[in-house]
């Protein structure tokens, strides 16, 4: 089989995979029929490698490349989400005789600090006491039944948190474990410290390697819609130092209520009401607005860190560029398809589900993904798009890959990982000035062992483009 390292000149009928990649796949018992590859130099008329490149395959998180490119072009890199606070009642001498309404517009990343900033803005109006309830207007996204356990039976994993127009702090609690100075006790704290999330017990400090420290904690979580308990009755190796564990608890409404109760009280406010969902009445008065960081910041988090929740929020937001709220997944998918058509990108095999790649349904071919990347390379949003990708051996999901290779800092990549799926897509830059798009999908039961083959493909492209021998 002809290898890639000798030449990267585009040729008719290109198809041969580099022999080192073939060998790595065979060693892991991954058949070539389970692989789709497309490699093309930017500006070249044809592919350097095209292996089963038109077959529809599950791309895992590389599907975020479609969502984020569409968002940068349709919304603009400087787009900002807003979250609004309304007074539904008269405010007299610092007291609201009625309800406080929080209305969300799909901000994908309202952090603890940003939520505190919103509360500070509300307090800055002079409001101190609220006699009514906290009302959540989540109507910007369509209400839907969402089961966080449906994808992989892991409902407490933050990546399984469902999209929400008023999503606060990813609806998650960070449990921090820290041994004391003498190494005989382990302190546990919760961030944010919510009144309806109780901590029971602390793990015993033990010697030994860190190992699988989470299993050693013997953790149990009693999670209900309005309250939760976390119990850590096991052991914690002191050698671990400080570690953290993120867990998604409560339902959306009661998580937001607990956040509000905590930080409203910390800001000197008084509130004793409950929480409910409702639309904002026309007569309600806008008293504060929180603006998100710009879209280009969100896109970096989505692509570098492969944040599924943020990607789903962004995908739904795309629906609002053409349709009135509430945003739905079918409308978002329709918007993306029309955007692709406007760019003359026909992807007949494309299946869009939630835009994040955390899906068993989503499909695209390696060739279509590469065509998307080539279109992005000549787009006005190229700089923000490429800089959002993980940099080889430097950051994001590839910070520990390609560390000993010459291509460190020379590849901008998006990875994808699901059970039975491994993927990589992005740009490889050679010191000669040549640039390539590289896409590889593996859909097979042994895909978890495919990372070495994926890395070898990227290394081979770099080596050939640089005129140096492949590893």
Give a structural overview.
The chain is of the alpha/beta class and 471 residues long. It has two domains: 19-78 and 296-466, Beta-lactamase (3-Layer(aba) Sandwich); 81-292, 3-Layer(bba) Sandwich (D-tyrosyl-trna(Tyr) Deacylase, Chain: A), CATH 3.50.80.20. The chain is 26% helix and 25% strand. It has helices at 19-27, 64-74, 112-124, 213-216, 252-266, 295-304, 308-319, 329-342, 366-377, 382-387, 451-466; strands spanning 35-41, 49-51, 82-92, 95-104, 129-130, 134-137, 172-179, 186-191, 197-200, 204-206, 219-223, 228-232, 235-237, 243-248, 270-271, 275-277, 285-291, 390-391, 411-418, 421-429, 435-443. Helix 1 runs antiparallel to helix 11 (451-466) and helix 7 crosses helix 8.
Short description:
With 471 residues, this protein is an alpha/beta fold.
**Annotated CATH topology of the largest domain:** Beta-lactamase
Radius of gyration: 25 Å
**How many β-strand stretches?**
21
Shape: globular
Distance from first to last alpha carbon: 17 Å
Provide the CATH top-level class of the largest domain.
Alpha Beta
Could you list some keywords that capture this structure?
471 residues; alpha/beta; Beta-lactamase; D-tyrosyl-trna(Tyr) Deacylase, Chain: A; 2 domains; seven-stranded mixed β-sheet; six-stranded antiparallel β-sheet; 11 helices; 21 strands; 26% helix; 25% strand; globular
């Amino acid at each position: 089989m002809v290898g890639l390292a000798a030449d990267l000149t585009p040729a008719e009928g290109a198809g041969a995979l580099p022999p080192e990649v073939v060998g790595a796949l065979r060693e892991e018992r991954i058949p070539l029929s389970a692989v789709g590859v497309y490699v093309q130099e930017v500006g070249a008329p044809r592919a350097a490698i095209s292996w089963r490149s038109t077959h529809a395959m599950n791309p895992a998180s590389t599907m975020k490349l479609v969502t984020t490119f569409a968002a940068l072009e349709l919304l603009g890199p400087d787009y900002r989400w807003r979250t609004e606070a309304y007074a539904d009642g008269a405010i007299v001498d610092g007291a609201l005789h009625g309800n406080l309404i929080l209305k969300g517009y799909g901000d994908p990343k309202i952090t603890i600090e940003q939520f505190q900033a919103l509360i500070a803005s509300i307090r800055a109006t002079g409001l101190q006491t609220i006699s009514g309830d906290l009302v959540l207007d989540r109507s910007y996204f369509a209400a839907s039944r969402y089961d966080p356990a449906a994808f992989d039976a892991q409902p407490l994993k933050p990546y399984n948190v469902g999209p929400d127009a008023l999503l606060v702090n990813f609806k998650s609690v960070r449990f921090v474990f820290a041994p004391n100075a003498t190494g005989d006790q382990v302190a546990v704290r919760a961030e944010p410290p919510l009144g309806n999330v109780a901590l029971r017990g602390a793990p015993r400090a033990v010697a030994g390697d860190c190992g699988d420290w989470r299993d050693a904690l013997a953790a149990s979580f009693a999670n209900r819609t309005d309250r939760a308990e976390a119990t850590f009755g096991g052991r914690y190796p002191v050698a671990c130092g400080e570690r953290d564990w993120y867990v998604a608890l409560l339902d959306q409404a009661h998580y937001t209520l607990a956040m509000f109760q905590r930080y409203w009280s910390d800001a000197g406010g008084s509130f004793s009401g409950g929480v409910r969902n409702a639309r904002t009445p026309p007569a309600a008065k806008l008293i504060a607005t929180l603006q998100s960081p710009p879209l280009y910041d969100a896109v970096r988090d989505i692509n570098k860190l492969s944040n599924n929740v943020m990607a789903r929020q962004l995908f739904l937001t795309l629906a609002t560029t053409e349709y009135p709220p509430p945003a739905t997944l079918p409308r978002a998918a329709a918007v993306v398809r029309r955007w692709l058509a406007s760019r003359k990108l026909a992807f007949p095999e494309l299946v869009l589900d939630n835009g994040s790649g955390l899906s068993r349904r989503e499909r695209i071919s390696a060739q279509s993904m590469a065509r998307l990347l080539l279109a992005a390379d000549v787009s006005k949003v190229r700089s923000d798009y490429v800089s959002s990708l993980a940099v080889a051996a430097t950051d994001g999901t590839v910070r520990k890959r390609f560390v000993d290779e010459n291509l460190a800092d020379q590849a901008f990549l998006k990875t994808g990982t699901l059970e039975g799926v491994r993927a990589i897509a992005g740009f490889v830059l050679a010191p000669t000035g040549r640039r390539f798009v590289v896409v590889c999908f593996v859909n097979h039961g042994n895909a978890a062992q495919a990372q070495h083959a994926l890395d070898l493909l990227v290394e081979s492209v770099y080596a050939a483009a640089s005129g140096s021998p492949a590893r």
